[in-house]
Design the sequence.
């Protein structure tokens, strides 16, 4: 299995020393170019075109019409007053989802990491148990919970068993929203717990020993030592969690399909619905919405970079 | 640490609280998965039972002389025959005609309210075996396996070549190339769906497994992971090989790759997980049913009007098994890789 050796050697003998690197980076770079950088350029072009044809040459130029129709609202807090009401439903749903999901996930992953960092029996098993759902396919995650939450499912059986009425969990707007938050926390919490656990283990043990010498009460140790030293990891988790939560799609799409109505339609689902799911494929509108999403993600990424630079400075100083 | 650790052997309230939290948490994390697994072994009639039983059960049947088919068994709860176990011959209205399997000649009439089904454990393995016959399940499985395997191989090859150049060569443009690759980490695939679909269509990659493979193989994460690892390999090794007139490709293939095995293993695991679980992009690029991967097949199957849950559950279990097996054996590599790279 060393077929490329001859051609590579041939190239090597002909290329000046400094160029050889390009030969190895080339293939990877070409794919980045075709499937990551070129698409961004095309995204901008698409966002200024209308119609439903796929090929850019068949698409009429409409200028900023896609953006202005997406942003045309009498009252931004009332999606019904907007030209693209689905877009604004998606935005406000996403805002609610992100706020609730990220804050709850942060609290629970910090708590779980703290508990898993203690000297307890079966620590390896418990760590594995909390991490396992992270590896599951989002479609599998959604189906697992759909099965639990269905009308004749085990959760309703428990309710009936304790004398209550069964609930159509996914057909009620409020509870469907709540379950999308819960299921996405269930599926991703292990990942963030792992990062926080690594952060906890990086705290030098002698600091705790010194605190024990001074007989510092546990809660003060937590507030004065653990929490400040864990802050860099918390920040990483916060920003990564935000970036991921804004892009929520897979689990929710399979679990609720965005419903009931548009109660659990989030931004990426709006993009998918607009560009791909219906017969009328509005690529231009989908591209414009993608760019607005990209803007949000860019801001979050810059915050992350700033935060990471800050933490590096701290650890050095 | 929430609290300082106390002496061994003594449990204080924080220990109790920790175990309680972990116990409930484990139940919440693994319970639904176990429930899925148990349910997938139930027959259609067992699945619609409410309240559901924990284990897959089926009504017991017994072969009785003179009757061609095995008869369903009931335990009689009231009346003359209370306590006996009888087999049902037929049911007319509210009365059932039954026989004692030990004395098959005498017919006994029992009101149907006076009896309860005799259940025994029974795993409906045909939920699994039927998948292959009744649905194009083998097709979906093959599509998923093909995409996952081929994408992993190409990913390892291309990413390690790039990482080799970025860690072991000095060339004009090396830093910009590296920064550019890191920048792609920040371009989530969700925002380039539309143009990527155009590119796939122009290249003839729609409805084609290669349409899932090619856009995914040049992972910035992989390049970064491998580059960081290769930086730790001593340059003297490479120089020694160059003295022996080895070609650069040979150095990459025979020296650098074998030494990078730990990092390659982590990337291989990541790549397999990513491709096996991927959903949105395959859904966009694979339009025809026969090109579907397992997650796509699951999604379209669950959307059908009359969902056949017994098959859907079995299919879901088959989809999660490979990931579970990989996790069981390679847990340490996975968690360390994720903790060090900060990605999943």
Sequence:
């Amino acid at each position: 299995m060393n077929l490329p050796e001859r051609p590579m050697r041939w190239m090597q003998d002909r290329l000046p020393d400094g160029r050889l690197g390009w030969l190895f980076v080339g293939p990877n770079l070409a794919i980045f170019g075709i499937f990551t950088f070129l698409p961004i350029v095309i995204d901008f072009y698409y966002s200024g075109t209308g119609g439903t044809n796929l090929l850019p040459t068949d698409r009429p130029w409409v200028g900023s019409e896609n953006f202005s129709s997406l942003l045309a609202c009498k009252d931004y807090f009332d999606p019904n007053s907007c030209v693209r009401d689905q877009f604004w439903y998606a935005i406000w749903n996403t805002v609610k989802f992100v706020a609730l999901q990220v804050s709850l996930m942060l609290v629970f992953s910090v708590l779980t990491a703290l508990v898993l960092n203690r000297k307890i029996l079966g620590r390896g098993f418990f760590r594995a148990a909390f991490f396992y759902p992270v590896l599951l396919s989002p479609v599998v995650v959604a189906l697992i919970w759909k099965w639990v939450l269905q009308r004749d499912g085990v959760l309703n059986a428990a309710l009936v068993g304790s004398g209550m009425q069964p609930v159509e969990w996914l057909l009620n707007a409020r509870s469907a929203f709540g379950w999308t938050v819960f299921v996405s926390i269930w599926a991703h919490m292990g990942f963030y717990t792992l990062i926080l656990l690594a952060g906890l283990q990086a705290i030098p043990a002698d600091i705790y020993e010194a605190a024990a010498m001074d007989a510092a009460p546990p809660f003060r140790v937590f507030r004065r030592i653990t929490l400040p030293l864990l802050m860099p990891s918390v920040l990483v988790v916060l920003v990564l969690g935000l970036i991921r939560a804004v892009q929520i799609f897979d689990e929710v799409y399979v679990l609720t399909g965005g419903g009931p109505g548009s109660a659990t339609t989030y931004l990426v689902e709006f993009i998918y619905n607009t560009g791909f799911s219906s017969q009328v494929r509005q690529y231009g509108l989908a591209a414009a919405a993608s760019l607005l999403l990209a803007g949000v993600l860019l801001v979050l990424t810059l915050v992350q970079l700033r935060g990471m630079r800050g933490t590096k400075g701290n650890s050095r100083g | 640490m929430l609290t300082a650790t106390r002496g061994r052997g003594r449990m204080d309230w924080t220990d109790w609280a920790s175990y309680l939290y972990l116990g409930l948490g484990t139940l919440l994390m693994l319970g639904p998965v176990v429930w899925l697994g148990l349910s997938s072994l139930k027959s259609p009639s067992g699945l619609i039972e409410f309240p559901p039983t924990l284990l897959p059960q089926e009504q017991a049947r017994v072969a009785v002389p003179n009757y061609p088919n095995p008869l369903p068994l009931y335990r009689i709860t009231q009346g003359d025959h209370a306590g006996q176990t009888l087999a049902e011959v037929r049911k007319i209205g509210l009365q059932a005609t039954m026989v004692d399997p030990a004395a098959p000649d005498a017919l006994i009439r029992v009101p149907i309210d006076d009896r309860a089904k005799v259940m025994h454990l029974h795993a409906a393995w045909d939920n699994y075996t039927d998948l292959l016959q009744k649905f194009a399940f083998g097709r979906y499985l093959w599509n998923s396996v093909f995409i996952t395997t081929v994408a992993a191989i190409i990913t390892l090859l291309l990413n390690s070549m790039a990482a080799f150049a970025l860690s072991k060569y000095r060339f004009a443009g090396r830093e910009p190339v590296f920064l550019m690759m890191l920048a792609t980490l920040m371009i989530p695939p969700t925002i380039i769906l539309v143009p990527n679909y155009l590119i796939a269509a122009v290249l003839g990659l729609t409805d084609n497994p290669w349409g899932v493979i090619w856009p995914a193989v040049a992972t910035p994460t992989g390049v970064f992971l491998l580059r960081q690892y290769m930086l730790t390999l001593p340059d003297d090794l490479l120089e020694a090989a160059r003295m022996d007139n080895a070609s650069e490709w040979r150095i990459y293939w025979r020296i650098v790759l074998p030494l990078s095995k730990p990092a390659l293993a982590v990337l291989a695991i990541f790549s397999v997980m990513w491709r096996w679980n991927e959903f949105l992009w395959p859904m966009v690029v694979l339009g025809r049913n026969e090109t579907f991967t397992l997650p796509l097949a699951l999604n379209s199957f669950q959307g059908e009007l009359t969902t056949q849950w017994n098959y859907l559950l079995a299919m879901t279990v088959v989809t999660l098994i490979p990931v579970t097996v990989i996790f069981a054996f390679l847990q340490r590599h996975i968690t360390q890789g994720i903790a060090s790279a900060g990605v999943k």
Summary: The first strand of chain B starts at residue 57 and ends at 59.
